Amino acid sequence: MNINDIPPAPTPVKGGGGFGPLKFLKAVGLAVRSLWLHKLRSLLSVLGIVIGTSSVIALMAFGEGSMKDALDDIKRQGATNIVVRSVKPPDDSASSTNSKSMVAAYGLDSRDIARFQTFGKSITTMVPMRVFPSEARYLERMHNVRMIATTPDYSDVNKIQLARGRFFTVDDEENRINNCVLGAATADRLFPFEDAMGKTVFCRGDKYLVVGVASDRMPTGGTGGSQAAEDYNNDMYIPLSTANQYIGSKVSIRSAGSRSAEQVDIYQVTMTIDAEVDTKAGRQTVKAIGDQIKRLLEKHHDKKDWAVTIPLDRLEDAERQQERFTSLLVLIASISLLVGGIGIMNIMLATVTERTREIGIRRALGGKQRDITAQFLVEATVQTTIGGLIGVVVGLFLVFVVPVAPGAAAWLTQQTGLADTAAWLRTIKLPAQVNVPSIFLAVGVSVGVGVLFGWYPARRAAKLDPIEALRHTA
Amino acid sequence: MPAIVEVLDLYKDYFLEGHVPVHVLKGLNLSFDEGDFVALMGPSGSGKSTLMNILGCLDRPTSGQYLLGGDDVAHMSDDELSEIRSTYLGFIFQAYNLLPQYTVTENIELPLVYQGVKLDEKTKARCEALAEMVGLGTRLDHRPLQLSGGQQQRVAIARSLVNDPHVILADEPTGNLDSRTSVEIMQMLQELNRSGKTIIMVTHENDIAAWARRVVRLRDGVVESDVRNDEQPITAAAAH
């Protein structure tokens, strides 16, 4: 075949080369190919990016998951609530004023309730309650319960959910009926083998008919100060009027080696404020009323025998904590991506040295500096992008695997019948909530890292002297 | 026959350690006709590689003119030189310089990529025809490392032709080959020259230079001798 029989050459495009949409896709294809030549090396060099993105996605998910748990918990407790509680004042003052009667009288009473009522409509419900630590009995079984005497609204305000039966009603309250509702654990302990409904429980010398059983519920976490952790499962609820009639206002408490009596009219008042917790104005309202209540109590009580708790404060604490956690994560992510980027830059510099001759050939055959820049920049970026995507997959894998690990460990133990070697696995409790924007962010940042850290090696490749590059022996 | 490559009063200085100038080319005047087959010879340090780099638009002279097809390309920008290389020049190297990760066809295609040409069936047909012309029609999908040295150099020849260049620059094309393969390659170059291609070749072997129509010897940056090989008189008939 003669050269003159060959199909003609295409017409060169003036100012050709560089970037273009189609060329870009082709460049990506070529980059993948040349990375594929060094699979292991390419993978190792993006390991930093993989670890960075996967840890961001996994930590984000776990952080968000546990934060959501905490927030749900607070919302369960009622984020628009204000809780006022009677607190035993410091010992000296109590004994000096009331030592003769041997009965410590302190805390809230009906006059306080009347004062709170001056807030009018901004308080939608007001639930007073009294608490008696007691022993509840059914036949030979006994359980230490927190007997709570309250009004029917308690169930709404504290978001009590019933597994069976009903909460006591206004009717029970008005007629001082001996009806009671049991917490899940209480019912379980007193009636392990039978249905609690319709049975009679003995407590403090009186009988109470079980009309409802609450469903199992996670205890609310306590945060220092006056906010105690509440475990609703060991509760037993009775109407307040019933308690006032049968138990009276004096409560004797037996504690190790001593006996003391206290007179507490109202142990706690829970008020629900008419406000939207998700709006700034609503939150302001709740806080403002909280402050007014504090001032009111300060004015009318000479002892500090009360405490005001605003769950919203905890909500805001939790939100602040989440913000702090997020910024910490961003820091960790930035560090690992920086390290990953340096890794990429390092490997790209090595690649440029190794492929000096190739660069020389491409330049001799008409490649412009910007063609070479584009080639190596695309290669670095493809590498980090793939790293980012692998990171996303690994991160999501962690998110979906870790929460089921306890179950899987239990199942394995059961199946194999071996000793529970992975017992610690079952103690892991990580609620996860995948943060979708974090996935896009992670991939986006990976691309950015590729461009940023690929730029210098790519420019260096482009600026090589073609003659020197051609002469380079690998 | 018009001159396709012409250098006028060409100087090239290098600066060693920053300040000491080394004069490599000292006022070179040369003119190569279209369709000619020139062998550049000379001992090392004679400046033949430097001249070759300037002719290949990989380097710029310190002063003087380089007319390629009538245009002065001596002092163009880097991008413009790249465009000149991809449009008007074909390169054949001693070490073949194929890209190992590419197939035969892809290697032949490479200069077109840098022309900004869209690769399609037509360009592919041209590349495959060129591969067939150099006797590698059955090895289009082979990688360079699967080929012998002679075969690789034939791929390089096909690649140097893909952009239909004005001039083919061959830098010791047989330097890495045994004598039998060298003859094959030289036959191929001669064949190309006979069908009208202008070839400028650097060599230090007399029997390789003997294939050319004209032999230019350099020494210390100036032309030492410039002779025509009598066996191959240039005629219009031979050129076409």
TrEMBL record, chain A:
Membrane topology: Multi-pass membrane protein
Keywords from the named record: Cell membrane, Membrane, Transmembrane, Transmembrane helix
Pfam families attached to this UniProt entry: FtsX, MacB_PCD
GO molecular function: transmembrane transporter activity
Localization (cell): Cell membrane
Transmembrane regions listed in the UniProt entry: 43-62, 328-349, 386-413, 434-456
MacB-like periplasmic core domain sequence ranges: 42-287
Domain ABC3 transporter permease C-terminal: from-to ranges: 331-466
Family: Belongs to the ABC-4 integral membrane protein family.
GO cellular component: plasma membrane
Name under which the protein is recorded: ABC transporter permease
InterPro entries in alphabetical order: ABC3_permease_C, MacB_PCD, Macrolide_Exporter_MacB
Domain of life: Bacteria
UniProtKB/TrEMBL annotation, chain B:
Domain (ABC transporter): residue spans on this chain: 5-239
InterPro entries assigned: AAA+_ATPase, ABC_transporter-like_ATP-bd, ABC_transporter-like_CS, ABC_transpr_LolD-like, MacB-like_ATP-bd, P-loop_NTPase
SUPFAM superfamilies: P-loop containing nucleoside triphosphate hydrolases
Highest taxon listed in the record's lineage: Bacteria
Protein name: ABC transporter ATP-binding protein
CDD domains: ABC_MJ0796_LolCDE_FtsE
Family: Belongs to the ABC transporter superfamily. Macrolide exporter (TC 3.A.1.122) family.
UniProt cross-references to Pfam families, sorted A to Z: ABC_tran
Gene Ontology molecular-function annotations: ATP binding; ATP hydrolysis activity; transmembrane transporter activity
Organism of derivation: Limnoglobus roseus
Annotated GO CC locations: membrane protein complex; plasma membrane
